[in-house]
């Protein structure tokens, strides 16, 4: 039955640092690559080389602009994937039991052999974390790379989600958010990590670290920057005079 | 939301079909024999036709039987089970009416209740979604049930009942539109709560994740036809309620003309239901559109 598990003491999830993300989309590509070659149906593309390409992605990076009342606007790159909610509405709406949350570690998964592709779980998700694959006709979502994190055939450093492994800036962190002493939990506590759309009551496991306000320059810029040299000095002055002496030089 | 033809056909036809079944189950009209055969044929045709249409929007229709398994937690699964139960009970009741010229009243009442329960579960599939504030309201089940009862009354030729139900359903539809138009704003979900970036200033969607479209935009950020929404509301309202009401209250002496008008009222009403049902989907705004700066 697709009710939610009573309580999973382990809550595996991601912490995304919006201060660090540079918007390179490497996590998007790493995710697409790993999840096309491994768990479940591949993430298909439609018309990939044509005029109107589109495809299934489990992770997408948005960009937002924050305009404060005073000062410069701030650009924030915003990666978004399944938040593995504690009260995941996508699990309880599923008519077949294909959509489920594991009591062992809280990961929300889709049993693709039971999914009828009705799309109701995607309708119930406020975050747009689920996409129906048009080629396979089944629902795709972030698996938190369940086939990497427990895969002992991989080197230790690769036993983390592909997006976290590939992030060149270190903006993504993976760990147990149910354990208050874990690195990710402490990071969330230190930086005031937040839930997306808390009013939806989904209790997301993934947390976002809000960007800190930009530094404001308190001192005036150096006068040198305001008035660049127009009259050369020293060697450059000599060179200037010497070149002027030549035919065609300034009079 | 994307107004998928399969879902509009499904909710329209099965709503009318289960509405007619509910009236037949209550013995309104208490038909038997060949007349009953025609009535039940129509009712089952509409209800089953709608249910079959609903499978067309599935990615894997051959696995649809699995949808009966989660009736304890999922409204969609509940609907499947309620539909089968309603059709089974009414099927037995229909056999009694057609072949044995008898009305097993308890069975009929149960079938009528199950038929209405099926439409209620359909409406709850939409009502349960917090992500679509326009649907997440008690008026949504009231809307579906009033449409179902009105269509059923017209199909069953219950003119007196229809004269009460038509204005009632019209009122619920009007309130539903009025409330629905405010729903997204009053839900409190904005780009600021979606991104939690509102603390430092005004947030604006700067760049989407991809230059092309995607499943989310196609399914949840349907905007075509919004500009004609008001006109379609007027057309839908006139077809669904005003014209059928006029057609059934106009005094005519000839029985043939009376039946003709009643038949016409059913067709006009059905066209109105399709129009308003299209709007039900096309006008519904999913909160995920916020992330794309589309709300």
Automatic annotation (TrEMBL), chain A:
<dbReference type="GO" id="GO:0051539">
    <property type="term" value="F:4 iron, 4 sulfur cluster binding"/>
</dbReference>
<keyword id="KW-0004">4Fe-4S</keyword>
<dbReference type="InterPro" id="IPR017896">
    <property type="entry name" value="4Fe4S_Fe-S-bd"/>
</dbReference>
<keyword id="KW-0408">Iron</keyword>
<dbReference type="Pfam" id="PF13247">
    <property type="entry name" value="Fer4_11"/>
</dbReference>
<dbReference type="InterPro" id="IPR017900">
    <property type="entry name" value="4Fe4S_Fe_S_CS"/>
</dbReference>
<dbReference type="InterPro" id="IPR050954">
    <property type="entry name" value="ET_IronSulfur_Cluster-Binding"/>
</dbReference>
<dbReference type="GO" id="GO:0046872">
    <property type="term" value="F:metal ion binding"/>
</dbReference>
<keyword id="KW-0479">Metal-binding</keyword>
<feature type="domain" description="4Fe-4S ferredoxin-type">
    <location>
        <begin position="73"/>
        <end position="104"/>
    </location>
</feature>
<feature type="domain" description="4Fe-4S ferredoxin-type">
    <location>
        <begin position="106"/>
        <end position="135"/>
    </location>
</feature>
<feature type="domain" description="4Fe-4S ferredoxin-type">
    <location>
        <begin position="12"/>
        <end position="42"/>
    </location>
</feature>
<protein>
    <submittedName>
        <fullName>4Fe-4S dicluster domain-containing protein</fullName>
    </submittedName>
</protein>
<dbReference type="Pfam" id="PF12800">
    <property type="entry name" value="Fer4_4"/>
</dbReference>
<feature type="region of interest" description="Disordered">
    <location>
        <begin position="199"/>
        <end position="235"/>
    </location>
</feature>
<keyword id="KW-0411">Iron-sulfur</keyword>
Automatic annotation (TrEMBL), chain B:
<feature type="transmembrane region" description="Helical">
    <location>
        <begin position="106"/>
        <end position="126"/>
    </location>
</feature>
<feature type="transmembrane region" description="Helical">
    <location>
        <begin position="138"/>
        <end position="155"/>
    </location>
</feature>
<dbReference type="Pfam" id="PF04976">
    <property type="entry name" value="DmsC"/>
</dbReference>
<dbReference type="GO" id="GO:0009390">
    <property type="term" value="C:dimethyl sulfoxide reductase complex"/>
</dbReference>
<feature type="transmembrane region" description="Helical">
    <location>
        <begin position="80"/>
        <end position="100"/>
    </location>
</feature>
<feature type="transmembrane region" description="Helical">
    <location>
        <begin position="260"/>
        <end position="280"/>
    </location>
</feature>
<feature type="transmembrane region" description="Helical">
    <location>
        <begin position="7"/>
        <end position="28"/>
    </location>
</feature>
<keyword id="KW-0472">Membrane</keyword>
<dbReference type="GO" id="GO:0019645">
    <property type="term" value="P:anaerobic electron transport chain"/>
</dbReference>
<feature type="transmembrane region" description="Helical">
    <location>
        <begin position="234"/>
        <end position="254"/>
    </location>
</feature>
<feature type="transmembrane region" description="Helical">
    <location>
        <begin position="34"/>
        <end position="59"/>
    </location>
</feature>
<dbReference type="GO" id="GO:0009389">
    <property type="term" value="F:dimethyl sulfoxide reductase activity"/>
</dbReference>
<keyword id="KW-1133">Transmembrane helix</keyword>
<dbReference type="InterPro" id="IPR007059">
    <property type="entry name" value="DmsC"/>
</dbReference>
<protein>
    <submittedName>
        <fullName>Dibenzothiophene desulfurase</fullName>
    </submittedName>
</protein>
<keyword id="KW-0812">Transmembrane</keyword>
<dbReference type="GO" id="GO:0005886">
    <property type="term" value="C:plasma membrane"/>
</dbReference>
